[in-house]
Amino acid sequence: MNAHRTLALSHLKVDSTLSEARTRLVDDVSLTLYRSEVVALVGASGSGKSMTCAAALDTLPPGVQKVGGDVRLDDTLATPAKLRGHAVASIMQNPRSAFNPVRSLNDHASESFRALGVPKRLWRERILEAMTSAGLEQPQTLLKRYPFELSGGMLQRMMIALALASGAPFLFADEPTTDLDVIVQRDILDLLERLKTSHGLGILLVTHDMGVVARLADRVLVMAQGRVIEEGEVETIFHRPQQAITRDLVAAHLSLYAHKEAL
Ligand SMILES: Nc1ncnc2c1ncn2[C@@H]1O[C@H](COP(=O)(O)OP(=O)(O)OP(=O)(O)O)[C@@H](O)[C@H]1O
């Protein structure tokens, strides 16, 4: 794993260029992610969470453009090509859509190692070790399987294994448990928490689920209309929210889970 300690997104700005009147989708967003911590980016649907991550990695969709800001690793300016896969791995909401159904898991691992320029002699040991760390049993057998033969939870673990195998010290996790049933959700959140400590991963967790935030996050940034409107330690966000939007997010969570301790 490479040795970077911090990932800093500074003053990111993203515009939609679809109409003549440009619309700002991400407006001056800055955040610093340290190793061995989970920062949650929360906010309503459309508040700009995913666009912030995509702007950092230069994976914005067509019709959307980064118009300002930069990303640094330990204070050194980093290009998106240096970040993607090498320093920052990504996992997404729907693991099934991230895999090609007609290619084996081994093919997927080989392809990602090839893209990262990892010497071939290291591939097998690296992926087997990463799969074991991601809680996948009998990895040798599993590597021969095709994505359609695996459950959503196993595919999410495989996506996490590919992230670990890349050696990237930071992970962008965009709604990583949304499509999974509650038992599998809990297992994946437990796994991410373990990896934060065992692998020193710095995790940027994109979610609108305050239950996931309460379970996993150390710090929280709340976004609305493309801006960060509040940030703080997770306890502060839950117990002393300052902004009305943050209070609403916490209140909605409490109304669903009022019978339990919120945090
Ligand atoms: N391809 C696109 N072209 C133009 N605008 C887009 C495109 N995709 C998303 N947007 C707009 O960008 C804004 C931010 O979207 P983004 O996906 O970052 O929100 P989000 O906070 O991640 O929401 P969600 O929780 O629903 O994923 C929204 O107003 C959305 O409508």
Break the fold down into its secondary structure elements and pairings.
Layout: E1 6-16, E2 23-34, E3 37-42, H1 49-57, E4 64-73, E5 76-77, H2 80-83, E6 88-91, H3 95-98, H4 105-116, H5 123-133, H6 139-142, H7 152-166, E7 170-174, H8 182-198, E8 202-206, H9 210-216, E9 219-224, E10 227-233, H10 234-239, H11 244-256
Parallel strand pairs: 3-8, 3-9, 6-7, 7-8
Antiparallel strand pairs: 1-2, 1-4, 4-5, 9-10
Helix pairs in contact: 4-7, 5-7
The chain binds adenosine-5'-triphosphate.
Main CATH class = Alpha Beta
CATH topology grouping: Rossmann fold
Treating each run of at least 4 consecutive H or I residues as one helix, how many helices?
A: 11
Largest sheet: 6 strands, mixed
How many domains? The number is: 1
- Strand pairing plus helix content: what structural class? alpha/beta
Strand content is: 25-35%
General description of the model:
The protein has a single domain, classed as P-loop containing nucleotide triphosphate hydrolases (Rossmann fold), CATH 3.40.50. The strands form two sheets. A six-stranded mixed beta sheet has the order 6-7-8-3-9-10, sandwiched between helices. Helix 4 (105-116) runs parallel beside helix 7 and helix 5 (123-133) packs across helix 7 (152-166). It is built from eleven helices and ten strands. With 263 residues, it is α/β, with parallel strands linked by helices. The model has no long low-confidence stretch (mean pLDDT 93). It starts with 5 loop residues before the first strand and ends in a 7-residue tail after the last helix. It has helices at residues 49-57, 80-83, 95-98, 105-116, 123-133, 139-142, 152-166, 182-198, 210-216, 234-239, 244-256, and strands at 6-16, 23-34, 37-42, 64-73, 76-77, 88-91, 170-174, 202-206, 219-224, 227-233. The chain binds adenosine-5'-triphosphate. The site of adenosine-5'-triphosphate has 15 residues, from helix 1. The site of adenosine-5'-triphosphate (ATP) has 15 residues, from helix 1.
